[in-house]
Design a protein that fits this description.
Blueprint: E1 8-13, H1 19-27, E2 31-35, E3 42-49, E4 55-60, H2 72-82, E5 93-99, H3 103-114, E6 120-125, H4 127-132, E7 135-137, H5 139-146, E8 150-152, H6 162-168, H7 185-196, E9 197-199, H8 207-215, H9 220-239, H10 241-261, H11 266-283, H12 286-302, H13 305-311, H14 313-317, H15 326-331, H16 336-341, H17 349-358, H18 368-378, E10 383-384, E11 388-389, H19 390-413, H20 435-469, H21 486-498, H22 505-514, H23 520-528, H24 535-549, H25 552-564, H26 569-579, H27 582-611
Parallel strand pairs: 1-4, 1-5, 5-6, 6-8
Antiparallel strand pairs: 2-3, 3-4, 7-9, 10-11
Helix pairs in contact: 1-20, 3-7, 9-12, 10-11, 11-20, 12-20, 17-19, 18-24, 18-25, 19-25, 20-26, 21-22, 22-23, 23-24, 25-27, 26-27
């Protein structure tokens, strides 16, 4: 009887084995990203058309070191491989990807998979790097010993997955015979390594070791990390600006064009000011998000990011966390949404929860328009010590306040957790990132960001538009129209509570649309103060108005408020999506608003004490 051809296969392997690069080669742009049913673990599936014209579905499972799951990602991988995940059909073939440069470690997981008794194909990835190390792997012998087909691949090289494509055009191999019950996997690995791996050259390249002497050095390594972070943030906040301006101009022109097609009235206001302006609020920050992800993906594929997490493990340990929290918190400087999403890789549930709770304290890019407006209006433009710009020092202090506060909050939340969570992670070989893989990953991140966040902000922007537009003021009514709207009335109702921290009713009104996205507060203030201009011009015109109407204490109080306040519904929505808990959402709201009010209260009254 002829064996069936594979219709559905699953790529599985250890982290850093190059599995995702192979998945991108095999599927290209024909892939979809979603979540597994009932959990927030990312599900990546794509289609491959083989040379014979057959269509094969390929599933990229989350990386794991063992079938003994310690995180939601690993639990999904385990259950899918076993064919017991609810709503997920069992794959016809498991493709076990092994990093050939670290065969001893990765073979263990392959042997665990073999024990499942399911059809398997083993892929030795990065085979070119093995040869450069002066080693040779006897592939036919390894295949005979394992009883599983073995092919080689180069995930970052064009055409490097050809052997996998060819294998998928053949019949499903029979399930391998498992090892005897209670067999020692480590002894089996040593036996396979002795039989199948030999050194072909006495020259043993030490490139990784030599580079690690600098990268992992306690002084020079930290300096290298700081330089890379400095360049990355310069890229995020400087290189993205031309693209952001282009997108902002495009959205403005779209709004003007649509406005000319629609008659004056509620529908035009809804489409232009609610839908288009709401979407533009998200889209304009997309270049910053993509540039940040480009850096993170490039550093990850190069093998550097795990080393950065290792370098910062001691610093994170002072807050009760591990170095694994560094990457999500780093992502949160662009936007807390992808930062919170990336906590899925944190194995310890309590560490993941604490990282999610402190991610909003990282100063995201949406705060910058508010910071820039208030600093320009109230902080003198002069140098300190003849070298440092005072505006830059104040901005740095705001960033530092968020980071230090996050470490303190994490320490408080973890004070009863006396269990140590040492950071154990594989340091992969250095490699050049693949351009195709980077482009596909960026495209997927852009789609995820726009679909998950854009719809939320557009919806909330429409709600805020309605609050700011209705009811309309009576004919001949004095003052701005917003003063008569529901938003204006709410602002006056909020005033008794916020007067203690120096806010006026105009600030209260601006906080309302700012709940949809922090940067909207600038246009909210422009509306309240009747500044009719685009957001960029509004900031220029607002600065002298605010300095004339507000005290220095009020301005500093609002800056302190924006360091802590959860003025971003999309962040709260993602916390709910990632944790599945409304309780954690309310915990975030209460403690962040509490910190914001306390910080603003202290800032306002201390500043008043010194300035009168």
């Amino acid at each position: 009887m002829t064996s069936p051809l594979p219709q559905r296969v699953a790529l599985v392997g250890n982290p850093n084995c190059g599995k995702t690069a192979l998945f991108n080669q095999l599927t290209g742009s024909r892939q979809k990203v979603a979540n597994y049913a009932g959990v927030t673990v990312e599900r990546k599936a794509g289609r491959l058309t083989t040379p014979s014209g057959r269509s094969v579905q390929i599933l990229d499972l989350p990386g794991t070191y063992s079938l003994n799951a310690t995180s939601p990602d690993e639990a999904v991988t385990r259950d899918v491989c076993r064919g017991v995940y609810k709503g997920e059909p069992a794959p016809d073939l498991l493709i076990s990807v092994l990093a050939a440069t670290n065969l001893r470690l990765h073979l263990r997981f392959a042997l665990e998979l073999r024990q499942l008794g399911r059809p398997m194909l083993i892929v030795l990835n990065m085979i070119d790097a093995v040869r450069k190390q002066g080693l040779e792997i006897d592939v036919p012998r390894l295949q005979a010993e394992l009883g599983v087909p073995v092919v080689t691949a180069i995930g970052v090289k064009r055409g490097g997955a050809a052997s996998i494509v060819q294998a998928l055009d053949e019949a499903v191999p029979p399930p391998p015979a498992p090892l005897p019950e209670g067999a020692d996997l480590h002894a089996e690995i040593r036996r396979l390594m002795a039989l199948c791996v030999r050194r072909t050259s006495t020259r043993h390249p030490q490139f990784d070791a030599k580079l690690d002497r600098w990268v992992l050095h306690p002084v020079w390594g930290m300096l290298i990390l700081l330089v890379l972070l400095f360049i990355m943030f310069q890229a995020v906040f400087s290189w993205a600006q031309p693209f952001m301006d282009l997108l902002q101009s495009g959205m403005d022109q779209l709004g003007e064009f649509v406005g000319t097609l629609l008659p004056e009235g509620i529908l035009r206001s809804l489409i232009v000011e609610g839908v288009i302006a709401g979407a533009g609020t998200v889209i304009v920050f997309l270049p910053q998000i993509l540039i940040l992800f480009l850096w993170i993906l490039a550093l990850e594929e190069s093998g550097y990011l795990p080393r950065a997490a290792f370098m910062l493990d001691k610093l994170m340990a002072s807050a009760g966390l591990s170095g694994r929290s560094f990457i999500p918190l780093l992502s949160s400087f662009a936007c807390a949404v992808p930062g919170i999403m990336s906590t899925r890789t944190i194995q310890n549930p309590r560490d993941r929860m604490v990282t999610i709770l402190i991610a909003p304290l990282m100063t995201c890019s949406a705060r910058l328009p508010v910071y820039a407006l208030l600093i320009a209006a109230f902080v003198p433009s002069r140098t300190v010590l003849g070298l440092l710009n005072l505006h830059g020092l104040v901005l740095f202090a705001l960033y530092a306040a968020g980071v230090l506060s996050a470490l303190v909050v994490a320490r408080v939340l973890k004070k009863r957790d006396t269990e140590e969570h040492p950071l154990l992670m594989e340091l992969p070989s250095y490699r050049v990132p693949g351009l195709q893989s980077l482009c596909i990953e960026l495209w997927q991140r852009a789609r995820i960001f726009l679909s998950r966040v854009g719809t939320i902000i557009v919806t909330l922007s429409i709600i805020m538009w309605a609050l700011s537009s209705f009811p309309a003021p009576p004919a001949g009514a004095p003052g701005p129209a917003i003063d008569w709207s529901l938003a204006g009335r709410i602002g006056h109702l909020m005033l008794p509570l916020f007067a203690f921290i120096g806010f006026n009713w105009q600030i209260c009104v601006a906080l309302i649309p700012g709940l949809a996205a922090r940067e909207v507060a600038v246009s909210g203030l422009a509306t309240v103060y009747s500044v009719g201009a685009s957001e960029g011009d509004a900031a220029t015109q607002l600065a002298p108005l605010l300095s004339a109407h507000w005290s220095l204490a009020t301005a500093f109080s609002l800056l302190a408020w924006y360091v802590y306040a959860p003025q971003c519904f999309s962040t709260l929505a993602v916390i709910r999506r990632e944790t599945g808990s409304w309780r954690l959402v309310w915990v975030s709201v209460v403690y962040l608003f509490g910190l914001a009010y306390l910080a603003s209260f202290l800032t306002y009254h201390i500043t008043r004490f010194f300035t009168g």
